Amino acid sequence: MKKILSLKKHEYLLLVISFFIAVVLIIFSLKELKSFSIQSAETSLITVNKSSHEALKQWIQFRKNNIKKLGSNDFLVNKTSEILQLPRDSSSLISSPITSELRVFFQPILDTNEDLGVFLISPNYISVFSMRDSNTGSFNLIAKESKSLLDKVLLRGETVLVPPIKSDVALESKYTKEKWHTMFLVTPIFQEEKIIAAFAIRLDTQKDFSRILEMGRIGESGESYGFNSQGVIVTNSRIDEKFEGIKEFNLENRLENEIDSIRVGQENKFSLCNGYVLSEIEDYKGENIYEVCVWDDTLNMGVATRINANEALKGYLFMRKILLLIIVGLFGMGFIMINIIVNARQNEENLLKENKRELEFIVEERTKELKHNIKTKDKFFSILAHDLRSPFSGLLVLLDLLLKNPKSFSEEEKTNMLEEIYNSSAQLFKLLENLLSWSRSQTNEITLNPEKVSIHDLIKVNFDLQLQNAKNKKIKLINEIDDRLNVFADRNTIDTVFRNLISNAIKFTNPGGTVRIKSSPNRKMVKVFVQDNGIGIPKENLKKLFKIEEKISTKGTNNEEGTGIGLALCKEFIELNGGKIYVDSNIEVGTVFIVELPNI
């Protein structure tokens, strides 16, 4: 203290100048940190918005392709033409056998896609067909709520998405308790190159539509949501959760506080967004939020991504508090020792750098996670789009032939057709079973229950299941596993592994061949060899076998079809059990898959 009091004027001046410089530096650092935090938030919001928007477009395009294909179905076109000849009153349409035939036609399609209903709409906007009697013969809901979109279908031949609107009937969805919101995909039905009607499928708003945008949730407050041209939120939103289920929280009601630059375009369309530009607005609670949004005319809706400003600037606000405390400390201690100021400044810079690294790490990790989720979804949709279509097409063709012309086929032909139906159904069942298992493994829904498992007994059970297939090809199944050999693993998942491997071995072994299972245990691991003397695998395909994105599906020696994901599923399950799987193969000599599992 005495040293401070004895300071000369120029030394006091030096302290004041030093303090002034420190304060200036702190203010500048805070400004730069805030700017960096805002830029990071903007980058994250734009990335998430683009990803959510693209995922939504891909899903809608996938559904549009499906409804276009269905809308050109000959049976549907003919029945639509016939029902349009009937009187347009409800009783005539409901009592018509055409309505019953169409309901039988549509029901399995709705069940498969988990959709909620169907409309056939005449050019004068009457619902000439619906899965519900209450809608049949009435002025169509889409014409009431979104006539301009329906006109695009009936007058221009476009396929359009009708964003969620108020439903005319209570809907039953397994994904939500909400019963009074609905959305549609609508496509024209052509006959002799003329539009005769509009075909609409009623989609479940809470299924894929809202789930895709829910993938855009960030942290505790960030989210992505869709809105229509009136500004009404049309997907699940954290805003909905805070309003306790009020679904029509309208952006138009908060324009004065949140949006300063809405422009009304031609035909009363709202221009809610001007591209990927970060906006700072005030929400319904008076809190500042950051938001980016984009309007998509092809989807007839906009996609917005937002996050609470305090959460986005969490690092900055934390640093601001720290630095304000340091300034207060400088007032009390700045006249004591200069080195305190120097040390404080160094600490501040270190904290800034650390905070910057943390923010960059969080952004990078969340971006990786988002890309992984989108890639996984794309893989799943790709498999659904390509592998489910072929078996279903074959089934529908054969069943259509049997139903329409049963007397035109001999008993032998009918038996052959039924055998083809059975084979397609079995292939489809195996594909769905593998898809379900793979999907559960990707979403971490599989619970492993490791236990003592006898490999000999497990192989015996699977040999018994495959015995008929082996007999049909005169293939010997040899189990050389010691009946005292056990592993420590989850029984269900490794049972799936060996079922796939044995099925593949039989499929790719020539008639009269052999499938042999043997083992080689050591103290820590047990090696199980699934060996065949079949056609082998080309070397260029060996590295692709276990990758879901490198889909390889080769027909067996008796033209058996494969699912294309069995080996990828095997790899997932083996690694979940702490093991490994690899393969050795030679063309025309055979293949051996080696599975390593923990010894008991």
Automatic annotation (TrEMBL):
InterPro entries: BphY/WalK/GraS-like, HATPase_C_sf, HATPase_dom, His_kinase_dom, HisK_dim/P_dom, HisK_dim/P_sf, Sig_transdc_His_kin-like_C
Example GO molecular function: phosphorelay response regulator activity
Record SMART domains: HATPase_c (SM00387), HisKA (SM00388)
Keywords, alphabetical: ATP-binding, Kinase, Membrane, Nucleotide-binding, Phosphoprotein, Transferase, Transmembrane, Transmembrane helix, Two-component regulatory system
Keyword Iron: no
UniProt catalytic activity: ATP + protein L-histidine = ADP + protein N-phospho-L-histidine
Keyword Repressor assigned: no
Record field: transmembrane: 12-30, 322-342
Histidine kinase domain mapped to chain residues: 383-600
Record-listed E.C. numbers: 2.7.13.3
One record GO biological process: osmosensory signaling via phosphorelay pathway
Signal peptide positions (record): none
Protein name (Swiss-Prot/TrEMBL): histidine kinase
Species this protein is from: Cyclobacterium marinum (strain ATCC 25205 / DSM 745 / LMG 13164 / NCIMB 1802)
